[in-house]
Specification:
Elements lengths: L23 H16 L3 H5 L9 H24 L10 H6 L8 H21 L8 E4 L5 E4 H27 L4
Antiparallel strand pairs: 1-2
Helix pairs in contact: 1-5, 1-6, 3-5, 3-6
Length: 177
């Protein structure tokens, strides 16, 4: 990324710089509520992949749960340690190895709400002046990121994969899955 270039997600259009730290709790709460509604659908819709190349809604929810927990820990580390480096989450490997296969939609709903709630409380609790501290963040490419960007990344992951899960519903309802 060059100086002055606005960073955005090529898939969903999310722009990290457009998310203010005070917006993070509200967006996490809204996105989580929408994801929980999707998880309340028929188990076949939630747990079955609509195609080989797409995760199921349950797998997206498990991934988002894990990301929100990881983002929270990374934010805390960045406010305590000097320029910590976050460990990779190994998203593809978690799915491929079946780490989400025992998650039920009801458990995912509860755990997603808990993970989101913990991240919301963490964002609201950041001590004044520490929101600009930085960490080495490996996604989408290794770069030093401020705590505010890391919080926005939590919003991005939730909203991006909520869009993926909603697309799964559309694929099923249109008969394309």
């Amino acid at each position: 990324m060059t100086a002055g270039e606005i960073e955005s997600c090529p898939d969903c259009g999310f722009v990290w710089d457009h998310v203010l730290i005070n917006d993070v709790p509200r967006r996490l709460e809204l996105g989580t509520r929408s994801f929980v509604e999707l998880l309340a659908q028929d188990d076949a819709v939630v747990s079955v992949r609509p195609s080989f190349d797409r995760w199921s809604i349950a797998e997206y929810a498990g991934h988002v749960r894990d990301v929100l927990l990881t983002v929270r820990e990374r934010m805390i580390a960045a406010t305590i340690a000097d320029r910590p480096t976050g460990l990779p989450i190994f998203r593809e490997e978690r799915v491929a190895l079946g780490y989400y296969r025992l998650d039920t939609p009801m458990e995912l709903a509860v755990e997603l709400q808990a993970a989101s709630g913990l991240l919301v409380k963490t964002v609201r609790s950041i001590p004044s002046g520490l929101e600009t501290r930085t960490m080495n963040y490996g996604f989408p490419s290794p770069m030093e990121r401020p705590v505010t960007w890391v919080a926005a990344q939590g919003v991005h992951e939730l909203e991006h994969h909520l869009g993926d899960a909603e697309k799964n519903v559309l694929l099923r309802s249109s008969g394309l899955a």
